[in-house]
Amino acid sequence: MAHSPGKYTDFERLRDQAVALRRAGLSRRQIRDRLHVDNNDILNRLLEGEPPPEWTKRPNAKDDLRERARELRLQGWTYDQIQVELGCSKSSISLWVRDLPRPERRQRTREEASLIAKRGWEAKLRLRDEERRNTKQLAMAEIGHLTERELFLIGVGLYWAEGAKSKPYSRRERITFVNSDPNMVTIFLAWLELLDVAPDHLRFAVQIHETADVPAAERFWAGHVGIDTATLLKTTLKKHNPRTNRKNTNVGYYGCLRIDVRDGAELYRRIEGWWYGIVGAATAPDLRNRT
């Protein structure tokens, strides 16, 4: 079968993605569709040595649920009760138990109806949570290996979204990045390392509400970036506003970490140039025609 020239040139990266998807529980068809691999020989090579997930080996992955549903139906359970107990759809239950006698119907009490409704909602919430987890895990597997160029571009976009920027009315060409998400801080530091920014050019400071546990926040951020709390700059305390209904007040609240790069004017100018280079490339008329 013919395919685009150069489509599989980066075979190792494509294999990393395929293996990650396989280990996340995807079938061959799902992997083929996600990676757009239309050649079975290539797909076989990508998945070589990776066993198929258990659910693809069985003729019916819901055999256990089916047997349990039939047991409950024989005990006189209704579709609603079985759905709440097993967390599966009524359409599936109907297919599984339609050859069994119907239980004797009786009028439910208000308490029974309320309990069934509550348990049904809880079952739906569990299913939604499971769907969320599965979607996130599959999406994580799609990323695979990150190249230096990809990290470079991510870092430029990250800084331009979250970092301090010079304004025409206030010329401040300096590198300052503030964020409350430890993962964002980790990516930003990895990006600075990629740019060969020396560790001794970095300065860190905590910014947090005055009503929070300031020492705990300082310990958290210092540990996260691998420095001693004594090397942190003076913590900036935000005044508490009693009229503000803040949600981030629990024990996991550590405020924000500010990262400054000393003598960063030249780097700032390069970042600004990189960013507008990305904008120009992304809006080029021939973008859709590139291979």
In short:
The chain is of the alpha+beta class.
Biggest sheet architecture: 4 strands, mixed
Number of domains: 3
The total count of strands amounts to: 4
Q: Count of helical segments?
A: 12
Please name the CATH architecture of the largest domain. 2-Layer Sandwich
> What radius of gyration results from the CA coordinates?
28 Å
What is the averaged pLDDT score? 84
Could you tell me how far the N terminus lies from the C terminus, measured between alpha carbons in angstroms? 19 Å
CATH topology of the largest domain: 60s Ribosomal Protein L30, Chain: A
Q: In the CATH hierarchy, what is the class of the largest domain?
A: Alpha Beta
Strands side by side in the biggest sheet: 1-4-2-3
- The global form is extended
Poorly predicted spans: 1-5
- Strand content is 5-15%
Structure class: alpha+beta
Helix content: 40-55%
N-to-C order of helices and strands: HHHHHHHHHEHEHEEH
Task: Please render the helix and strand layout as text.
Elements (H helix, E strand, L loop, with lengths): L10 H13 L4 H8 L4 H7 L7 H4 L5 H12 L4 H8 L3 H8 L12 H34 L4 H15 L12 E5 L2 H13 L7 E8 L4 H12 L10 E3 L17 E6 L3 H18 L9
Parallel strand pairs: 2-3
Antiparallel strand pairs: 1-4, 2-4
Helix pairs in contact: 1-8, 5-7, 6-8, 9-10, 9-12
